[in-house]
Write a structure and sequence with these properties.
five-stranded parallel beta sheet; alpha/beta; oxidoreductase activity; 12 helices; oxidoreductase; 316 residues; Rossmann fold; binds iron/sulfur cluster; single chain; disordered N terminus
Amino acid sequence: MTTTAEHGVAGQPGAAEQHAHPHAHDHDAGTPVASARPKLAVWKFASCDGCQLSLLNCEDELLSIAEAVHIAYFPEATRAVVEGPYELSLVEGSITTPDDVRRIHEIRAQSGVLVTIGACATAGGIQALRNWADVDEYRSVVYAHPEYLRTLDTSTPIASHVDVDYELRGCPVDKKQLIEVLAAFLGGRKPRIPTYSVCVECKLKGNVCVPVATGRPCLGPVTQAGCGALCPSYGRGCYGCFGPQDSANTASLTKQLVELGMADDDVIRVYRTFNAGAPAFAAASDEVAERVAARSEAAAAAAARADGIVQERGPE
Ligand code: SF4
Ligand code: SF4
Ligand code: SF4
């Protein structure tokens, strides 16, 4: 794909030792390597690689993409590395180590436009569950030698560390939306990505509403569209993998979930999945958790009071 030798160190921005030559040619495509083509880099942090795979899954469009942009750094697709700066960086994954913090700043410095892709990069991913846990305890239970690990107490989105030009949601991202982002970048315009809820897509498809028809929970009313209401189209409730939509009324949904018979712990769990760290879902789950904690405290206080009364009276 590129004209450079493969001397770059994966994950190290700017580590490549050779440069694209303006008059060089693509070896496999036989087409000129147009130095005018914007350079695209795809970076990975804490993630499962699924969002990068969405790019590789754009089978019908991949050749056109490769003609429009110079894929300069994309370890999942090619070992070849072309030195930055890069006109467009796609970043997958969340920040979970001190090294990640250093690396994302280097990547930002080398990137013209930086787009984060997927729930990990935009909300901290499923690994953001550690934000409610004791990381030291996890470390000591999982690893034989936790002293060799350097990790952060939290998993945070890329935007918590550097400026991000656009965030594309989903776990994984939708490939049509990914192509729209690339097309918008090439056209110098804003991506046309909806910010309304999955319910809108669901109604447009004429689906029967899952909670209304079956009583099963669905996060569609508070989740951003983009998947084409995939789960409700198969009779299953949405579990929020595209994260909160721009005006998510989680208070109303929480009330409805409880009315449908969901236990508080389960309500907390439905908000704490792939987008647990997204502010709207985090706040909704915290609200329920605080209510549960207040109820347990009140019950413990009542039990202590009753115990005190019994002791005061003495055995009957
Ligand atoms: S957002 Fe989902 S699919 Fe994408 S990298 Fe994270 S876990 Fe994988
Ligand atoms: S099934 Fe879910 S997404 Fe579809 S309309 Fe009902 S609540 Fe909304
Ligand atoms: S319906 Fe919800 S859970 Fe299913 S793919 Fe769409 S956003 Fe994700």
